């Protein structure tokens, strides 16, 4: 009788496991949010040095990708805009592109191959990315896409008008990239990024690339911060030593 009961319990567990889908530890790794290393890339009619490191950040409805080399402090390229994932496709709507500004405003559909942690993206426009998900061991309260909405000027906080001219910062759990651009005219004003950490009310950036001034590469900048997950207050000194007091508003959630 005892053996029969044990067998019944084992059979019941097997039936339940066949019904309930397997749980993925931590966040759902089928979700593309986070940082990806671009291991191979190709952009039609564009030659990029072999030493370029490629990183793509995806945060909800937004994406950025960048090509740079930390050792030589070189910045090669960046692009970004809104992001949408389908079954076997992803869709980029380009809001800025340093190599091909004529793509701004276009919707690029890329065929996706691969699983949860490796993607191959190919488009008819001659774009190819072979990407691997970056392992990030922290869980940052700042991950997501943020748009600057207030900035201190002459001692007074000034509201930044909403429009096609925008500055958006994207953060995964351990990497960041900001970009300033005009999504209507295709104008690009600058970008920078690298790794970051948050601890005890301090937000610290380690700059790995900066499009406007490569002398900033290698700098570590620390700021006071606080967030309620909708607003992010950020204050300290810039890489030039200028006072910074900003408010960023989250524009896209991550899972």
Verbal overview:
- The structure is a single chain.
- Helices cover 7% and strands 56% of the residues.
- By secondary structure, the chain is mainly β.
- It folds into two domains: 34-133, Lipocalin (Beta Barrel), CATH 2.40.128; 144-252, Calycin beta-barrel core domain (Lipocalin, Beta Barrel).
- The chain has an eight-stranded antiparallel beta barrel. An eight-stranded antiparallel beta barrel has the order 9-11-12-13-14-15-16-17.
- It is globular, with a radius of gyration of 21 Å.
CATH superfamily of the largest domain: Calycin beta-barrel core domain
Task: Determine the mean pLDDT.
Answer: 88
Structural class: mainly beta
* Largest beta-sheet details: 8 strands, antiparallel, barrel
**Rg, alpha carbons:** 21 Å
Shape category? globular
- Oligomeric status of the shown chains? single chain
- How many domains? 2
Level-2 CATH architecture of the largest domain: Beta Barrel
Strand segment count? 17
CATH class wording of the largest domain: Mainly Beta
Distance between the termini: 48 Å
The helical percent reads: under 10%
Uncertain spans: 6-28
Strand content bin:
over 45%
Order of helices and strands: HEEEEEEEEEEEEEEEEE
CATH-defined fold name of the largest domain: Lipocalin
């Amino acid at each position: 009788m005892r053996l029969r009961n044990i067998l019944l319990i084992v059979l019941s567990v097997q039936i339940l496991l066949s019904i309930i889908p397997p749980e993925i530890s931590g966040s759902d790794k089928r979700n593309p949010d986070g940082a990806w290393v671009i291991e191979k890339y190709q952009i039609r009619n564009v030659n990029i040095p072999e030493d370029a490191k490629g990183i793509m950040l995806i945060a909800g409805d937004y994406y950025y990708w960048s090509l740079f080399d930390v050792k030589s402090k070189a910045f090669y390229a960046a692009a970004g805009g809104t992001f949408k994932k389908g079954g076997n496709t992803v869709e980029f709507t380009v809001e800025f592109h340093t190599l091909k500004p004529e793509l701004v405003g276009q919707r690029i559909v890329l065929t996706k191959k691969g699983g949860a942690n490796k993607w191959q993206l190919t488009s008819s426009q001659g774009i190819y990315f072979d990407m691997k998900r970056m392992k990030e061991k922290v869980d940052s309260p700042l991950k997501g896409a943020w748009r600057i909405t207030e900035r201190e000027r002459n001692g007074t906080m000034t509201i930044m008008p909403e429009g096609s001219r925008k500055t958006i910062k994207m953060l995964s759990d351990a990497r960041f990239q900001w970009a300033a651009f005009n999504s209507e005219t295709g104008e690009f004003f600058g970008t920078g990024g690298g790794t970051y950490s948050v601890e005890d009310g301090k937000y610290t950036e380690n700059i790995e690339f900066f499009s406007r001034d490569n002398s900033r590469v290698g700098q570590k900048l620390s700021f006071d911060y606080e967030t309620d997950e909708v607003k992010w207050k950020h204050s300290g000194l810039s890489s030039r030593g200028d006072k910074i007091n900003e408010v960023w508003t989250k524009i896209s959630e991550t899972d």
